[in-house]
Amino acid sequence: MEDGVDDDLGRGNSGSRVSKGKARERDEPSFIGESSFVRAPLNSRVSISPSINGKGKARADSLDRVPIDIQEALILEDLLYVLMGIPGTYITYPSDYSPEDEDPLQGVRLVIAPSLDPSLRDLVERILPLATYYTAITSFIELRSHLDFGLVNHALCAAMREMLKDYQTLLAQLEHAFNTSAQFTLQKLWFYVHPTLHTLSVLYLLTTELATADDPSGSASSSQSPSTSDAEEEARNEALGLGGAKLKAVLNEIDKNVNESSGIAVKGGEVLAVIYERMQIMSGDPSASDVYASLLRSAGKPYVEMVRLWIQTGRLLDPYEELCVKESKFIDRGTLEMDYTDEYWERRYTLRDGSTMGGSSKRHQAGIPAPRTEGGRLPGGACVPPVLERWKHKILLAGKYLNVIRECGIEISRDPGHAEDEELFMDEEKFYKAIEDAYTHANRTLLSLLLRDQQLIPRLRSLKRYFFLSQSSFLTHLLDLSHNELRKSARSASLVKLQSLLDLALNTDAQGEDAMFREDVKVTIASSGLYEWLLKVVSVSGVIGGEEGEGAEGNAHSHGHASHGKKKGEDEKQMLAIDALTLDYSVKFPLSLVISRKTILRYQLIFRFLLHLKHVEQSLSSMWIEHKTPTWRRPTRQAPIPASTSGTSRSTTPSTPYPPATPISTTPDLTDKEKDWHMDFQNWRKRVFLLRARMLAFVQQILAFATFEVLEPNWRKLEGRLEAGKVETVDQLLRDHVDFLDTCLKECMLTSSKLLRAYSRLIVTCSTFALYTASFTKSANQALAASETPEGDQAMAKRWDFLSKFETNFNHWFKVHLDCVQFYASSENVSLLPLVVRLNSIKTAS
What's the rounded mean pLDDT across residues 239-247? Predict the structure, then answer.
């Protein structure tokens, strides 16, 4: 009996196929009139969807009287079309279907004829999602194969297309079985397509997530927001020609296009991140995990090749901005000579997500795209694949190091431990080992280039010698040679003359290793005073950095200095050349990465700080020499002595190193008024001596502290790390160098506004006092001359008043400075403790 049923079913199937073929020949239009026939012959069924719906309705009524085995044969034939995305006779588009309104990435929507037997309907409803999945995946492949979506999307689409080939092969086999075997049933069809249904559903979920990730989120809400314009505003817009539905539609379309163009497509690293996240979510399903793992390997091939080219050659080939590394082509190495932020190293090659080695992120800066959602993943190439998250900095640095070597014109040697043609995949341990090896090789190569070929350590020693004055005989020679030039205003001083005098001083003084690199040292004139500039910087937390709790006071003080600076700008003669004198140092690439403009600026600040101390010390020492002249040393009176022994007493008096310029009175007694004047004048001279000695001691103690207890120990630490090979990476070398300079600046009290203010007032007081050397000597000569006149000296009170201003100012700021140093030494800067001891040795005048 079963054989008979099979024969009947076979005959019924063949009869139905013949009748259906004749009906199709009658109803289908000629292929000559079908414009899309050459492009897609099966589209003839889609283009006449209204007639198909009508024919399907007519047939639906007749299915009530059709035996179930015939219904199964008819629906089987329909399913073979439907599974390829072509609507059939009994499985058609819904009545409200419109190609313009449907999203092809969501797949087709199909409905089954209501007169189909329920038992068959159940199986058909299970199979129908295959058509939705297939059409959605096909549309996704067609869309994402466009050039703008990048190489990763192209590789993903190629992998999906390979999977769909297996699906299409299965459909061809099913159609062959349907045409040749009478035993082919709907149940067998379900049995064969069931595994494929799961695979396509996995692909459909992935394509749906990728398709919806880059949709503009605000367009729907903005278009649905209610209008708030009233009738009066609408009338005004109409009068101005801004009203009308057509114009509003045009404006809405423009806004829509702008919103869509401003978005970043899902490409590059974001595609790989989505696949990886789907793989982790479906980790409990082995077949789904295998599908996603296969897609991740296939889609990641272009990404791996870009990473491999970058870390092995230093060349960035990323035409569609898919890689996590970004190149700013407008920044070249020429900017190193003028840019104080060293953009070439810091911004020429960066990570697209804005992260740095220190763990900080710059996502709010310009050029860093906003995440898709609040706290979500970044779009496009800015999204680093999760499997490479911990390797991204090594990827960046490996290529960056090699790029520097390429910029020097040096051929990059291949790492012998790597096979060039070895195929790598993103989820393999070999790929991560290749990144680690490339990073180590590039780092070792660039470090060797800097330390050995470019002589970095001798360069740093020369910087220490010239800027930290470790052997400052050349500076003393320069100050002596250029004494007259440095007394001019900063605007009037001749740079050419100063440079020639510096060359003369260096050529006279330098010998052996000290003579190296002296031609790279140049003289420059700064545009502003050292302390005014530093106070402005630290008060706004600039490159040197401010301190908490100093904002208001620091800003107020900086405004005061700014206004003072404006007054100086009006009259440049107020700033002498000695106050603006500084050195510059020129190096070539790649040493300019380490000895950059940013670090040269720090060297210049420390040099100007030491130069000012040296100059004030020299001025006070000159004042000390001046105070050894007879005007300051000879006594103004003598006790009564016998005339016969006056010459002997005069020659043996220890307080009289020089013979008196005028005969000393040998009168037996002086009047009380004369005694008071003589005592007052001698006390005035002693107070001048004492103030000069205290100022000189202060300057010498600050200079000794800065050189012996700050600069030299910190330099020894840096030099020891470099010579011992403890610096393992180039970035660590750059950080250690900048940290060394920042530590020196901090311990020299150049980064605190309170310490800077007190110290600047003190040092200006000392230098101003030294400038009045000739004035004090002239005043002393006038006093001695006036004391021999009958009227006597009447200007002693003015001298005391003038001297007391210096004393009061120095004592006040010395106490403020000492208090600040003690506070910082006990709270945050322990290195200032030796300075506290040194300053306490300078006693305050009673």
Answer: 54
- Peptide bond connecting 590 to the previous residue in cis, omega within 30 degrees of 0: yes
> What are the phi and psi torsion angles at 91 (to 5°)?
-120, 110
* Rounded Cα gap, residues 520 and 779, in angstroms: 47
Q: Which residues is 582 bridged to in the sheet?
A: 524
CB under 8 Å to 537, separation ≥6 — which residues?
543, 544
Q: Are 95 and 37 spatial neighbours (Cβ–Cβ below 8 Å)?
A: no
Instruction: Report the percent of the chain where pLDDT is more than 70.
Output: 72
**Residue carrying structure tokens 């208090």:** 819
Inform me whether the pLDDT recorded for 430 exceeds 70: yes
Helix (H) / strand (E) containing 770: helix 753-771
* CB count in 10 Å sphere of residue 361: 13
* Both structure tokens of 296: 């991740």
- Inter-residue contact 201 to 133 (CB < 8 Å): yes
* Tokens standing for residue 380: 């496009």
| Contact (CB, 8 A) for 31 and 44 | yes
pLDDT of residue 666: 42
- Mean pLDDT of all residues in the chain? 77
**Nearest one of 370, 578, 393 to 487, comparing CA atoms:** 578
Scanning the structure block, which residue is given the tokens 């020196």?
A: 744
- Model confidence pLDDT, tens digit, residues 313-328: 889 999 999 999 998 8
User: What are the tokens at 401?
Assistant: 């190091």
Span 679-702, average pLDDT:
87
Which positions ≥6 away from 653 have C-beta within 8 Å? 635
d(CA 4, CA 779): 142
Nearest CA-CA partner of 464 in 703, 702, 715, 714: 715
Helices (H), 571-596: 577-580, 591-594
Six-digit token string for 23: 């009906």
| Residues 744, 742: Cα–Cα separation, whole Å | 5
Contact 514, 464 (CB under 8 A): no
The count of other CB atoms within 10 Å of the CB of residue 284 is 7
> For residue 167, is pLDDT > 50?
yes
Which position has the token pair 């024919």? 55
Contact 28, 44 (CB under 8 A): yes
Helices (H), 89-149: 118-127, 129-144
Residue 241 falls in which region: left (phi positive, over 0), alpha (psi -120 to 50) or beta: left
Q: Please classify residue 647 by burial: count the beta carbons closer than 10 Å to its beta carbon, then call 0-12 exposed, 13-18 middle and 19+ buried.
A: exposed
252 pLDDT tier (thresholds 50, 70, 90): low
Integer Cα distance of 467 and 257 in angstroms = 59
607 pLDDT higher than 80:
yes
Asked whether 474 and 509 are in contact (CB, 8 A), the reply is yes
Please give the structure tokens belonging to residue 145.
Answer: 């194969």
Lowest mean pLDDT, pick from 219-233, 436-450, 640-654 = 640-654
Higher pLDDT, 444 or 789: 444
The whole-angstrom separation of Cα 409 and Cα 830 is 47
How far is the C-alpha of 443 from the C-alpha of 465, rounded, in Å?
Answer: 29
Whether the predicted pLDDT of 389 surpasses 50 = yes
User: Residue 238 is encoded by which pair of tokens?
Assistant: 């109409």
Take residue 561 and report the two structure tokens written for it.
């200095």
Rounded Cα distance, 458 and 39, in Å:
74
The model's pTM: 0.69
Residues 266-297 have pLDDT tens digits of: 999 999 999 999 999 999 999 999 999 999 99
